Amino acid sequence: NRTAPLACGSGGGGDTVVGGTGGGAALIEATGTATIDGTISANGGNGVQSTIRGGGGSGGAIYVQCHTLAGSGRLAANGGNGVALTGAGGGGRIAVVYTTAGASWPGLRFETAQGTTPYAGRYKYNAEPGTVWLSDTGIFSPNMAAGLLRTNVVYFGNNSWSGSSFVVISNSFRIATTGFQFSVSGNVTVSSGGDFDLPNLRCGGSAVVTNGGVLRVHGDPTNAVMTYGGILGVTNTLAIASNSTLWVQSDPTNGGSALIVAGSLVLARYGTISGYGYGYKPTLGPGAGSGNYLA
Fold this sequence. Notes:
mainly beta; 13-stranded parallel sheet; 21 strands; 0% helix; 8-stranded parallel sheet
């Protein structure tokens, strides 16, 4: 349950019982203020390196309930690493339920990354990042502090945010709230260490992806009324610099795709717009394969 995670993480598998242990569960209730300046961890354990190989354990659960949220600490439920021919552990779940976090975000950081494995490039060995659920979008600001979100799939208690500008540097996250609307009256910049993934971005100025930054626009499922699953709308210039990427991702089961609309487009040499591998998942789609052979 991403809004109220209570279960600890699962252990990793292996040739024998040598997989990493799952992360624990930290369940906290504070009737007043929860000030977190240290670390709350529910990371999964790494697999054992030996001639008998073990996979990483999954991240556990962190569930904090309070009236006022404060502090600049770290909450982590990362998956454990796999070794040799084994898979990594998936990220865990973090939920923080609060009434207020003050006029500006206090500085809390979140990590729910999947573990790593030497065979991550093979589909069956891939693990997925975990989730973070927050009561509101207070973590966002025009100049979002670096390192607040690291490899997270984020859900919010509301479904929109608006601001005068937005800069993503050294933050990596996917906004997974269905239909979420992200509106910026001025410019959007995704730069070094930034990986920003969302279904709908409307930018009243220019959107620039530079210095190795990554912008991803994913489509939510569509129906007969909604033609597109998401939209990237830029009033002025959409610019993708060298060694920077705009990913366009269709919904893997429904096929809903994102529409890109811009005043002008500048795609630099060695810049990329790509949908590689982001269509229907195996055995789905109008021309899908069947049986033991996939399209």
